[in-house]
């Protein structure tokens, strides 16, 4: 009687275990579908406003996806069923794989000059979906430790081969190797992948590995007279305006016959960088003319003709870390100094001009002789990949000469005392369009990125 009862209990136990395993397998079939949808949910979350509480939800969704889902889909494809004791090591491996895939995607886009946070998130979402759907093609294999896959006799057979212990160490070492490789390659933190929004266009890449802000060695000590590293979300109106001194409802440089009309909406601050965006969009200026392009600029000058400049400088080291536009033809970015008293005109110090090129930079001094002539002093430096990352362009403007620097190396010098400006000057950065050459028909936008601007004086 006891044996019969024990046998019935054993049968019921096996049936109950089988039922539980069946439910687990049914749920496991939905995991790949959830992974496939995770990236698109994170991408949709980026459309939420940046302000709390929506901003918190957006950051949480993007962070959770980047930390786990690409790696989880990869691990799921490689190991549809996990042995007992392998779940924690699988989690570690998924996080490490996610970090490696995020770094690889980011660096590939960055080196190709195509990086944006949204584009990287889109590629990772597509990759996660593809991996998850491949893992969903068939049901998971029976678990090797599943009692439902063996009968009661086989489970108690003394001659049965001993079960292997889970190999936890291998997954742990693989995770450590992936994290080490990611760190060695300089992969970005998850926070760098988030697109928190800004007051204007977002930069195409975060200023990863930007050059330090420091003046060259000199006989006399330097002190900082002005600095902005654009760590906020908006342009500081105490330091910058978005037009020339002669502005009125926007502005342009008619003397160069340029194709853009500058507007504040084309200036953005986000991810630790200032971005000036030129867009092919017809805009009617306050002068009554229609300009085929709209673009952005910043200046430390006035809000209007009769106003007071925000900052002017006489002598010192003036520098900025700049990334030139990837589409350079038809573009004319410039980092320069203009006299504050005359609201333009000569003299003029062109710290860096990129005229239809992101491989060569023009270094110019437009002087002013007593006869009113401009004995321009000019040097072109290159080739170099000025669109591939940030480069530092600066001038050491002293009473006895001006020296131009590119990435800390002097490249040009003017020492004629009659040509050296001796008047307070405003600082300007702009992205002009159509100077000497129109952009190609298939170019509709261009961006100039600035990681920091600094002025040091003795």
Automatic annotation (TrEMBL):
Listed Low complexity bias regions: 196-208
Keyword Translocase set for record: no
Domain GH16 stretches: 204-458
CDD domains: GH16_laminarinase_like
Comp. bias regions, Basic and acidic residues: 148-158
Cited PROSITE patterns: GH16_2 (PS51762)
Origin superkingdom: Bacteria
Transmembrane spans: 31-51, 57-78, 90-111
Residues covered by region (Disordered): 138-169, 187-220
Keywords: Membrane, Transmembrane, Transmembrane helix
Protein name from the UniProt record: Family 16 glycosylhydrolase
Organism encoding this protein: Kitasatospora phosalacinea
């Amino acid at each position: 009687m006891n044996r019969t009862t024990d046998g019935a209990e054993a049968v019921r136990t096996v049936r109950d275990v089988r039922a539980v395993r069946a439910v687990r397998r049914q749920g496991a079939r939905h995991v790949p579908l959830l992974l496939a949808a995770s990236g698109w949910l994170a991408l949709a979350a980026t459309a939420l406003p940046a302000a709390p509480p929506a901003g918190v939800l957006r950051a949480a969704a993007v962070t959770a996806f980047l930390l786990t889902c690409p790696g989880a889909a990869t691990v799921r494809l490689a190991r549809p069923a996990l042995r007992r004791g392998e779940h924690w090591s699988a989690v570690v491996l998924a996080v490490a794989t996610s970090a490696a895939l995020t770094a690889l995607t980011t660096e590939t886009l960055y080196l190709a000059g195509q990086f944006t946070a949204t584009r990287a998130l889109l590629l990772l979402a597509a990759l996660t979906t593809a991996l998850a759907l491949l893992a969903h093609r068939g049901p998971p294999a029976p678990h090797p430790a599943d009692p439902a896959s063996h009968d009661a006799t086989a489970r108690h057979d003394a001659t049965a081969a001993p079960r292997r212990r889970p190999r936890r160490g291998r997954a742990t070492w693989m995770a450590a190797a992936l994290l080490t490789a990611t760190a060695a390659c300089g992969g970005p933190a998850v926070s760098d992948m988030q697109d928190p929004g800004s007051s204007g266009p977002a930069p195409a890449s975060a200023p990863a590995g930007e050059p330090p802000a420091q003046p060259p060695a000199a006989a006399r000590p330097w002190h900082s007279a002005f600095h902005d590293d654009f760590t906020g979300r908006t342009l500081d109106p105490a330091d910058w305006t978005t037009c020339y001194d002669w502005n009125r409802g926007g502005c342009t440089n008619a003397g160069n016959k340029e194709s853009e009309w500058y507007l504040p909406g084309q200036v953005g601050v986000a991810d630790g960088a200032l971005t000036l965006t030129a867009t092919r969009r017809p805009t009617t200026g306050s002068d009554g003319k229609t300009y085929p392009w709209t673009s952005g600029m910043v200046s430390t000058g006035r809000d209007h003709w009769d106003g007071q400049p925000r900052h002017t400088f006489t002598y010192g080291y003036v520098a900025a870390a700049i990334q030139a536009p990837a589409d350079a033809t038809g573009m004319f970015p410039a980092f320069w100094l203009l006299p504050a008293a005359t609201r333009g005109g000569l003299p003029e110090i062109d710290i860096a001009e990129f005229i239809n090129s992101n491989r060569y930079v023009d270094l110019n001094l437009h002087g002013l002789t007593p006869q009113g002539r401009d004995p321009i002093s000019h040097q072109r430096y290159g080739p170099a990949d000025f669109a591939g990352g940030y480069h530092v362009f600066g001038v050491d403007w002293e009473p006895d000469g001006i020296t131009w620097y590119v990435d800390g190396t002097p490249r040009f010098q003017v020492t004629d005392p009659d040509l050296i400006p001796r008047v307070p000057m405003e600082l300007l950065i702009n992205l002009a369009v159509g100077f000497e050459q129109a952009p190609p028909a298939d170019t509709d936008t261009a961006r100039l990125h600035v990681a920091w601007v600094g002025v040091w004086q003795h």
